[in-house]
Amino acid sequence: MADLLLQQLLNWIVLGSIYALIAVGFSLLFGVLNIIHFSHGDVSFVAPFVALGAVQVMVASLPVAATPGILLLCILLALLLTGILGVVLEVLVIRRFRNAPAMMALVATVALGIVLRELIRHLYPNGSNPHPFPRFVSGEIAIGGVNVSLFAVVAVVCSVAAVVGLFALLNHTRLGLHIRAVSQDRDAARLMSISPTRIFRATFFVASAIGAVGAVFFAGYANLIRFDFSIDVGLIGFSAAVLGGLGSMAGAIVGSLLIAGLDTFVQAVVPNGASYRLVFVFLLVIAVLVFKPAGLFGRTVVEKV
């Protein structure tokens, strides 16, 4: 019984950490741009396909084996390229909607996500089929007398480190100061010689790269990757950000842990819970927003007309 409880607790923490990496990207982009970038999950899930493709190319063209070190190198390359992809999409598409009504940006980013998924499905070899995704860390360690996956421990530690690094970037660096300045008042930031355009691109790079970390760990957690994983996980990440309050980093983390906890509980307790887990998750989101429309940590904005 204790082993089962510890395993479910570990599943909760791992899923919560992964969802948090996706959710903080949504909150960061909304906090700076005031735009709901609904395709953020789809951008993030480009990373596992890039990493897997890079491994296959290296193994086919160079006399090397697909070792964990090679996989880790390809993952780092994928994180960099996914961050650059986020910047490219901001330049080509999303910047057109900075001052447009929110609904236009929402529809445009939903369409952008569909385009990304279909490109992966048609351009990646056998893109419609699931592909096994290896873990770059294997083995087990003993925690409290129970053997747990070393990958799960690494996933949690790296997720926490990524979130702590993001908070440090936002609160203790010059770039973070500029990001906060632009998010509060773009016109005042311009008067202080801060370029909103440059800050938008830097924000997209950071949010896309940190979302890519979550996507890679989710692929490793599931041991496979599908072109449509971004639909469920992206929607859960967005729901976690909304649950905690869009624009709130702490709220995104709390929302992710709540959703992951309910997800894990339903799968462990409810018969055939894996089929109904999203029903319970979104009922939780609806229930919270009925009583707290701005989310748990969000602030209600009052506009004078």
From TrEMBL:
<feature type="transmembrane region" description="Helical">
    <location>
        <begin position="12"/>
        <end position="33"/>
    </location>
</feature>
<feature type="transmembrane region" description="Helical">
    <location>
        <begin position="70"/>
        <end position="93"/>
    </location>
</feature>
<dbReference type="GO" id="GO:0005886">
    <property type="term" value="C:plasma membrane"/>
</dbReference>
<feature type="transmembrane region" description="Helical">
    <location>
        <begin position="45"/>
        <end position="64"/>
    </location>
</feature>
<dbReference type="Pfam" id="PF02653">
    <property type="entry name" value="BPD_transp_2"/>
</dbReference>
<dbReference type="GO" id="GO:1903806">
    <property type="term" value="P:L-isoleucine import across plasma membrane"/>
</dbReference>
<dbReference type="GO" id="GO:0015188">
    <property type="term" value="F:L-isoleucine transmembrane transporter activity"/>
</dbReference>
<dbReference type="GO" id="GO:0015192">
    <property type="term" value="F:L-phenylalanine transmembrane transporter activity"/>
</dbReference>
<keyword id="KW-0812">Transmembrane</keyword>
<keyword id="KW-0472">Membrane</keyword>
<keyword id="KW-1133">Transmembrane helix</keyword>
<feature type="transmembrane region" description="Helical">
    <location>
        <begin position="233"/>
        <end position="262"/>
    </location>
</feature>
<feature type="transmembrane region" description="Helical">
    <location>
        <begin position="274"/>
        <end position="291"/>
    </location>
</feature>
<feature type="transmembrane region" description="Helical">
    <location>
        <begin position="199"/>
        <end position="221"/>
    </location>
</feature>
<protein>
    <submittedName>
        <fullName>High-affinity branched-chain amino acid transport system permease protein LivH</fullName>
    </submittedName>
</protein>
<keyword id="KW-0997">Cell inner membrane</keyword>
<keyword id="KW-0029">Amino-acid transport</keyword>
<dbReference type="GO" id="GO:0005304">
    <property type="term" value="F:L-valine transmembrane transporter activity"/>
</dbReference>
<dbReference type="InterPro" id="IPR052157">
    <property type="entry name" value="BCAA_transport_permease"/>
</dbReference>
<dbReference type="GO" id="GO:0015190">
    <property type="term" value="F:L-leucine transmembrane transporter activity"/>
</dbReference>
<dbReference type="GO" id="GO:0042941">
    <property type="term" value="P:D-alanine transmembrane transport"/>
</dbReference>
<keyword id="KW-1003">Cell membrane</keyword>
<feature type="transmembrane region" description="Helical">
    <location>
        <begin position="144"/>
        <end position="170"/>
    </location>
</feature>
<keyword id="KW-0813">Transport</keyword>
<dbReference type="GO" id="GO:0015808">
    <property type="term" value="P:L-alanine transport"/>
</dbReference>
<dbReference type="InterPro" id="IPR001851">
    <property type="entry name" value="ABC_transp_permease"/>
</dbReference>
<feature type="transmembrane region" description="Helical">
    <location>
        <begin position="105"/>
        <end position="124"/>
    </location>
</feature>
<comment type="similarity">
    <text>Belongs to the binding-protein-dependent transport system permease family. LivHM subfamily.</text>
</comment>
